[in-house]
Write a structure and sequence with these properties.
Radius of gyration: 18 Å
Strand order of the largest sheet: 1-2-3
Largest sheet: 3 strands, mixed
Number of helices: 4
Number of strands: 3
């Protein structure tokens, strides 16, 4: 269910929402509740300084996005979408950076 909603919502946003020039919006993952009444849609934005503007844009269009999703999916109930900032990608980038630093330090000792 999560991947289906992610795929459909990506298509809807790409088609219907005009993001800011030079901004890349990516739906990174979707987490549906077990009862399928709501789902958290995690997204990332590049450049990250545009996050607040993109979040406001998505929330302004949330009703239209929900309606489009309702029409695309042949199920009831269609989970109510809620947008959330993706933090795992930033955490992963930080871990990657730390591992690279550790690797450089260990190579310098040999």
């Amino acid at each position: 269910m999560n991947s289906l909603i992610k795929r459909e919502l990506n298509e809807i946003i790409l088609r219907d929402v005009d993001t800011f020039p030079g901004t890349i919006l990516t739906i990174t993952r979707v987490e549906c509740a077990q009862n399928l009444y709501d789902c958290k849609v995690f997204f990332s934005v590049i450049p990250e300084k545009q996050y607040d503007e993109v979040e406001a844009l998505l929330n302004r269009h949330i009703y239209a996005l929900q309606q489009s999703l309702n029409k695309k999916l042949r199920m009831r109930p269609v989970p109510k979408i809620m947008f959330r900032k993706e933090t795992k990608t930033a955490e992963a980038a930080r871990i990657e950076q730390l591992l690279t630093e550790i690797e450089r330090k260990t190579e310098g000792k040999e």
